[in-house]
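Running log. JK asked me to keep both predictions on one page so they can be read side by side. First protein, sequence followed by its tokens:
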Amino acid sequence: MITISTSKRGYLTANVNNIHIHSPYDPVREAERYLRNQVSKAPRTVIIIGECLGYLGQSIAKIYPNTIIHPMWLETTLEQNALPFSYETGWDPSKPMSWQEFISDILSKGVVGIQILIWPAMEKLFPQEISKIYQYILTEIKQINSIKSTVQHFAFQWFKNCLQNSNFIEGYYCPVQKEKIPYFIGASGTSLSEHKDWLLNNHKYIRIIALPSSLCFFRQLNIPVDFIITQDSGFWADYHLEYLPYFSHIVCSLKASRRIKHLTKKPLLFSNHSWYEKIIFDDKPVLSLPELGSVIFSAIEFAKTMTDDAIILGGADFYQKDIQTHIRPHSFDQYFDQLGSRFLGELTQKYKRMIDFNAKTIKDNYRSIFSLDYYRDWFAQQYKDTNLNQLTPHKLRYYDLPVYKSINKKEKQSLPLELIQWEQADKERSQNIIGSIKKTARTKQSKYLTEFFPLDYEQLSGYSETERQFHLNKLTNTWLSKVDKILPLRSPNV
């Protein structure tokens, strides 16, 4: 029970079951002393976990007036009796949004310069709740930084691939209507082998979408694959696609590996609708898919656009041994000739290090790592109310999908696809596209170029407008100079 009383110096104070939340003498001085011990320079944003009567928030507003404050009260009574202070958004249990939504909204505005403060007395009273909130914030920040780092590393590669692939393909396919037939998605997890007999008996009655890493499996069983979906910008997809066994529609975006142009001149294209894709497609019809971080999610979204029937998931296990197929071949194997192999992923040095340093055993010898935990949790939340199915209950219980029980044994018909003709690629067309892209980049740099420099751009949040524009111009000039090096694009007739 929370009791509000007056301190020796006349300030409000509180205790819970006779445990003092604030000093019974001078809670103002107590909060300022705690703040100076925890914070050495002005943070951009502070999240207060376990705010009480507002003394910590008041101290932050007084000492660091430009800092954005987000208090979190774990008890509504404390929020109702808190002293007024200026904060941007706050949370307490009476709010309609969850604390996870509250934190995600804060972090979506940027994670640079964030500091987390935990009021010590509340940590003693609510150790589990506060630990859960704290770990959630750290995990989200780590994931956001990881995504931004990945985007910053690959963004220009995706852009370059778009230009090169658009210069070589002769046309592309686009779906015209949905089918009424089950779609099976084959990923590379070890559980895929459990579905071998079912696939051999039923492949004539379903559409099969194969991830590049599962092509070997389907080739060995001589099972035709309707679609091969890839979004990797290079390397892994390049080598997996060597197992392309027979005619299949390659589903990809223009951002995918430039090896695509050697495998097909007419892929089934989808667009993530980046600003430069819109310039390249120039209002032509094209399948639209959301931009997602993993090819398995893109495969699910693609299947949702193609069928009104069940979507069956196989081999999407989300545990660490799935990654064996992604290890072979590894670009650094040359440095580990005695320890590595380009043909057996489990013998490579990288795979050995990954297993040694991530010993989080889930069941038997299946292990998990941070990125797979994140994928799995996101997957479970995103697709819990869709028509996704599994053939057998997932042994590790990572997600709870209904088990697919019956199939209508009606042989599949021809695919409902339309071929979109692409105008002849030549140097003039390529230069016109790049000219439009460069002009758009210069005029809308703060809107469009930040995807190429997300980490650098976020650092500018504390700068004045003049300084921000100066540094953004530098980033723009760097980007434009890299674009100029792409020219001249090769004509397919050269």
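And the second, directly underneath as requested:
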Amino acid sequence: MVIRPATASDLAAAFELVMDMYARSKYASDAEVDAPTARSLLMQALQRHGGQNNGSTHFVVAEGEGRLDGFMIGALQRIYLIGNRLEAQDMFLYTRKDANPRAALGMLNSYIEWAESCQKVGTIKLSYTDALAVDGERLAALYERKGFQRHGAMFERVMPV
């Protein structure tokens, strides 16, 4: 298994992973993926990969057995969208159900290393969603072992269709 920066030739496989991720999410029955928007998002993440300024991204893939087993996209934005320092926010972290368990950890470590290397970054954020299909408390414990602290909570009200 190899963790590496995404390339243009990875976009089709990354799109399939996005579709798989969405199908596993709680939103799958409520709304469809807007395919052109999803493809555009992947292309923009690829184009902005590796920067250290507002809007820059970190787009890596986990490759194993001749296929993409996962992807991660993180992005930089101003703290609270108005600060003079940046925050790194994980946007997507996803692996196939049958991926090497080290794939997600390798991509996560790559994201953290990138964020730490950005001089303007004041905070690094991590989250997780139901699409990962992992025990949230186990993942939270991993994040805490990496030096992260819980900060607030997110609440959601899903609107009927």
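Observation for JK regarding the second prediction: Helices lie at 11-24, 35-47, 102-117, 136-145.
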